[in-house]
Amino acid sequence: MWEYTDKVKEHFLNPRNVGEVENPDGVGEVGSIACGDALKLSFKLDKDKRIKEAKFKTFGCASAIASSSALTEMIKGKTLEEAMKISNRDIAEYLGGLPEEKMHCSVMGKEALDKAIENFKGAPAVKPGEKIICECFGVTDMEIERAVRENNLATIEDVTNYTKAGGGCGNCHEAIQQIIDRVKAEEKPVIRPKLTNIQKIRMIEESLEREIRPSLRHDGGDIELVDVVGNRVLVATRGACKTCKASDITLKNFVEAKLRELISTDLIIEEVNNP
Amino acid sequence: MKPVYLDNNATTQVAPEVLDVMLPYFRELYGNPSSMHSFGGQVAKKINNAREQAAALIGALPDEIIFTSCGTESDNAAIRSALATNPERRHVVTSRVEHPAVKALCASLSQQGYRITEVPVDKNGLLDMEHYENSLAADTAIVSLMWANNETGVIFPVEKAAEIARAHGIPFHTDAVQSAGKIPINMRNNVIDMLSISGHKLHAPKGVGILYVRRGTRFSPFLIGGHQEKGRRGGTENTPSIIGLGRACELAAANLHIENTAVKKLRDSLENALLKAIPQSKVNGDRINRLPNTSNISFEYIEGEAILLLLNEYGICASSGSACTSGSLQPSHVLHAMGVPFTMAHGSIRFSLSIYNTEKEIDLVIEKLPPIVERLRSMSPFWNSGPQVCSGK
After folding, report:
1. 3-state SS assignment for residue A233
2. Structural domain range at position A171
3. Which of residues 103-162 of A touch B (CB under 8 A)?
4. Shared-domain flag, residues B305 and B367
5. For A36, which of B309, B313, B329 is closest by C-beta distance?
6. In whole angstroms, what is the distance from residue B255 CA to residue B249 CA?
7. Which residues of B are catalytic?
8. Does residue A192 form part of some domain?
9. Is A2 among the domain residues?
10. Is the pLDDT of residue B141 over 80?
């Protein structure tokens, strides 16, 4: 059984604003019977261009019905500009949270809202340049990209939970992964504060002790920090590392990679002759 | 509120008579049946008694009964044993509608390089026997076909299928978890080599099962350990549960006629009343070759989870093949294999009865469900616009 919050249950058992607005200003329909859920949202504006009336019809599970009900309550009294700022997270939060597997219900609400507003503005239902990625559930690249961005999704499974994309035949998994990778690549690298020399040396020492030496010692080797000159980290190998033919590979691929990951991408490891 | 429990294919209540015989083996009679002393020995005697009771339910010999921990273990043990004793054979034949205990195991075997044939079913959930026979190959290590389907109750002609497998020299296993205690099973009259039973589906507790292995069948144990179960299943016996299961088998044999008369009558009256009261509803699965306790009905244009949660408000327990209840977003693989359209599959509800259900309980469902369906349909964007063709999007 799903762990629904009391608020989800309450909105499911007593849904607000079920039906269709007469002479609506905007209508948005998303989902399909194949997906297992679908939502038709309609709204009417008052003379101040605020949403006066909003109604829904939903085919779907308890959380789909509750999300639709919550959405209509949330947008009432708002201008379209204000309503457009509502994200799927806001809908989920309004309900006190949704199970991860049910997040797509809140996404469906957000999509119906966008479509209804587009419909009011007379925009085409499908934006030019959008491409269907998941054929089973008819999810476009833009929809996936937005879900990945707004919810910081990292895996295909996350994307399926949020958009349903990839939940059917699985043929689109590669394309979904590409979108995730693209969004991740755009993210700005972490900006680290500039370190003073003494801070840098201390962090290198600490990292060597905590992250690197245990692995080397496991194989009977060790490492010693000789000096730090700018970004050059001068080290000497000890124990088994000293005689190991592959120690330069270890220094490059393991020690340097680790220090770059933990401290600064500019660091260069150099082995100095053992004193 | 006492629940109206109509989910007996998921699990059943432990019969009071079963619990009674179990309790002493938690309290004073806690000995290990393998011990040399008579304190343990008396428990061993009761285990053997349970073995005889279990054997009697299915017309088997006591030494053909291996006690396990559940139906899933029995299924895994049977299929893996066939593979281990026929290492040169790399092919498994099963059906598209198996329980995950077999289906997921076969998927895992497929990743290890085995060829798996999943025999299709028709729109009524009946096995395609021609396809089945044609799929048997020289290197088929085992056939595993369920006796009755857990979702629809549809019964496969496994005795006939076992004869065909035997003619090809292929061992045959059946998952009889849903059929044991509901329809007659007599291993003396068939050539099935291995058969799985789960305790908690027939009023014994959870955590105990049976694997029947016909005398003369080559067997390689799944759990390797001590000499329990004649070395065919290591691990100290779950004594209270095995003794309880023995009693449950005895009761099931005695109650078999009730399942096929009173329970069947209740099921039929529930089904007929719902079909009559609710337009655009349909039974999934063949209505003749079917367990007497199971009814799987689809209500078009609404979604199963929502129906279940509204039934839950009245304490009515059932289950659904809808995608939203599975956690996987995919509607039931059984209904999918039968070609049930999406408009129907998402709104499927399974009622599964037991001898403990009453007419009053059935009447409550007949009273409460039609307004629930109507309410959800009034919310559904597909209902008022009338029946529409599903385009897949």
Report:
1. strand
2. 126-187
3. 136-138, 160
4. yes
5. B329
6. 10
7. 324
8. no
9. yes
10. yes
Asked if residues B192 and B169 have their Cβ atoms less than 8 Å apart, the reply is no
The shortest CB-CB distance from A164 to any of B310, B329, B379 is to B329
Query: B382 and A101 in contact by Cβ < 8 A?
Result: no
The answer on B133 and B280 residing in a single domain is no
Tell me the residues of chain A between 48 and 77 that have a Cβ less than 8 Å away from chain B: 57-65
Q: Note whether B286 and B196 are same-domain residues.
A: no
State how far residue A37 is from chain B, nearest Cα, in angstroms: 8
Q: Which domain holds residue B128?
A: 16-252
Among the partner residues A9, A34, A63, nearest to B393 by beta-carbon distance = A34
In the listed set B219, B252, B285, which residue is the last one of a domain according to the structure?
Answer: B252
Contacts of A13 in chain B (CB under 8 A): 310, 313
CA–CA distance, A266 with A192 (Å, rounded to integer): 12
Mean pLDDT of B296-319: 94
Looking at the structure, tell me whether residues A13 and A117 fall in a common domain: yes
Residue type, A117: I
**A169 a catalytic residue:** no
CA A231/CA A104 separation, integer angstroms: 47
The greatest distance separating any two alpha carbons of chain B, rounded to the nearest whole angstrom, comes to: 76
DSSP B162: H
Q: Is the pLDDT of residue B390 over 50?
A: no
Same domain (yes/no): A117, A13: yes
Could you report the predicted ipTM of this complex, rounded to two decimals?
A: 0.84
Strand pairing class (B172-175; A132-134): unpaired
**This prediction's pTM:** 0.77
pLDDT band for position B393 (cuts 50, 70, 90): very low
**Catalytic annotation present for A172:** no
What mean pLDDT value characterizes chain A?
Answer: 87
Task: Assess whether A234 and A131 both reside in one domain.
Answer: no
CA distance B323 to chain A (A): 7
pLDDT value, residue B388: 42
Confidence at residue A238, expressed as pLDDT on a 0 to 100 scale: 85
pLDDT of residue A128: 64
The residue whose two tokens read 């499908």 is A126
Structural domain count, chain A? 3
pLDDT for res B145: 98
For residue A77 the two structure tokens come to 């009294």
CATH number at residue B91: 3.40.640.10
- Give the pLDDT confidence of A128-161 residue by residue, as tens digits: 678 888 877 778 898 899 999 888 898 988 898 8
Contact B393/A at CB under 8 A:
yes
Q: Does B280 touch chain A (CB under 8 A)?
A: no
